[in-house]
Amino acid sequence: VLLLKIHATKNCSGVSLKTQELYAIVFVTRYLDLLFSFISLYNTIMKLIFIGSSACIIWYIRFHRVVSQTYDREQDTFRVIFLILPCLLLGIFINHEFTITEILWTFSIYLEAVAILPQLVLLQRTKNVDTLTGNYVFLLGGYRALYLLNWIYRFLTEPGYRQWIVWISGTIQTAIYCDFFYYYFQSWRRNEKLSLPS
Amino acid sequence: DPDDPAHDEL
User: Taking the mean position of all CA atoms in its chain, how far away is CA A6?
Assistant: First the structure.
């Protein structure tokens, strides 16, 4: 959705490069297993799509002659190091196995939970949020919220299925969107442009 | 081992 929006409108105002870069870090550190394990064709294709689309979005915002001019550089100022470092420490200390790939995988789970924050802060600073950008954040949050249902279903149907690190991180991730969801639905119901209160 | 979850989700 976001890549299509940027490609079609040649405009990335209201889009946080910081969040996209955090997602790129999340996908690369999590999908290292592309190199040594195969789960399904769907799984492999989606991993490649996630890595590829976020790389494309970053390229557009950073380097595209037209798109890069529309980037809200002065507004997108979230200090991502304050997210990356704690997640890395958490990944080193709370994991299933003390190996490089497992620590990086766990780090990516923690980082993903908070990766949307720079985008939410930028949306709050943007007076009139572009409809497509609002829809992108809604779909991203909705996609993760659906995982909660999936985890319940798998817990009930697969003996021994549990993964506390993923469940807790995913629940926090979805909770971070709650406020956004509220204003998204309100603006939808009133047929108004989305704007988050500051 | 159930405590060693397969990373089969995205």
Answer: 17
